[in-house]
Amino acid sequence: MTTDYICPKCKAHLLLNDYLILTARKANGTGMLLLMNPEVGNYETVYHPSCKVKDGERFTFSCPVCHNTLVSELNKNLVMVLMKDESGKEYELHFSAIAGQKCTYKIMGNSVSSFGIDAPHCLDVMGLLDLA
Ligand SMILES: [Zn+2]
Fold this sequence. Notes:
Strand content: 35-45%
Structural class: mainly beta
Shape: globular
Low-confidence stretches: none
Distance between the termini: 29 Å
Mean pLDDT: 90
Oligomer: single chain
Bound molecules: zinc ion
Strand order of the largest sheet: 1-7-8-9-10
């Protein structure tokens, strides 16, 4: 594993044992730990079986180390973490905070790459079309 995920607030490393680890909180306040596949465009997640996640439900993501929320500055429905690739380049990775919505944007400067079947739709909905 040569890529790394970093909290934009405290710079803690969030990638352990091949999972990106974040905390997610439902609108009703219920919090949970969420393990995400770190491969961009792969939406596999792991969470405790007692947690019920419904498609369309919006979560507030935060860093498990500093507890700051990781809301994207682009849109409140996106989460942002920093990603460092194998060559040491740093990107902003923005992904949907809504369960079941498959869209991810990898951004460095003016360059935007999008991933996931919902990405074009999300771009439109979120008013990001001018970015792409
Ligand atoms: Zn942090």
